[in-house]
Amino acid sequence: MRPERALQQRFTETAERFRTGQVGAVINNTLTVTTSGGASLTVPRLATWTPAVGDVVVLALTPGGWIALGKIA
After folding, report:
1. Are 71 and 57 in contact, with CB atoms under 8 Å apart?
2. Residue 6: strand, helix, or coil
3. Is residue 41 included in any domain, yes or no?
4. Which of 4, 5, 35, 63 could disulfide-link 21, Cβ–Cβ 3.0 to 4.6 Å?
């Protein structure tokens, strides 16, 4: 594989592991988030912040599934 193609593939793979979305509901430690692509996901969150409906958050794809990392300031 050419180096340019390898770099492009790596950037694409990395970009697919993160999304942004807006919180639609908060139930205990779980959020319902509508992603920028329009999908609705129910995801756990990190304990480092208290989410609110309307927050725009960063989501990361982990081996266990999607998780909300925190609010975008």
Report:
1. yes
2. helix
3. yes
4. 35
Please count the structural domains in the chain: 1
At residue 36, the pLDDT reads 84
In a domain, residue 10? The reply is: no
Report the alpha-carbon angle 49-54-58, nearest 5: 55
Whether the CB-CB separation of 22 and 51 falls below 8 Å is answered with no
Residue 61 forms part of a structural domain: yes
* Radius of gyration over every alpha carbon of the chain, rounded to an integer in angstroms: 14
Please report which residue ranges of the chain form alpha helices under DSSP H.
3-15
pTM of the model: 0.78
Give the residue from 5, 2, 44, 7 showing the smallest Cα distance to 23.
44
